Amino acid sequence: MDKMKQLAAEKSLMQLTSVFNNNQTVPSQFTCDGENINPELNITGVPANTKSLSLIVDDPDAPGGDFVHWLMWNLEPETLQIKENSIPAEATVGKNDFGNNDYGGPCPPSGIHRYQFKVYALDKKLDLPASAGKKELLAAMQEHILGQAVLVGNYSRAR
Model's pTM, two decimal places? Predict the structure, then answer.
């Protein structure tokens, strides 16, 4: 198998799961209407030769365009689980669009929004300061992604 086919196969093997299924509702405890804590995330199928993992949680349906809720990088490649309401000790947490270096749960102003939980397997550790945002993280990851997985959760606030 040539290298491109192998990379494509490895990218498709990676999976990200949680307490909610793909394209289902994010439980309110993980939103601004609840405890505003991160849900448990489970990672499987991490490609061989992975040196670090990164995570981006964003809302592509936000009124002003993509809104970032959580950024993390330099998680150990052996990280198979991010526990509820926790951040792995080795991870660097970047600046979200709330202006904080932590998890900010779904909090749509109106309607149903999609929240994308995206994990990336990288062939290197990233040299980024905690003040970095999504733009800087994406630039640093470019050309280094060995695999990725996406879990989409939906959320609408009760009115």
Answer: 0.91
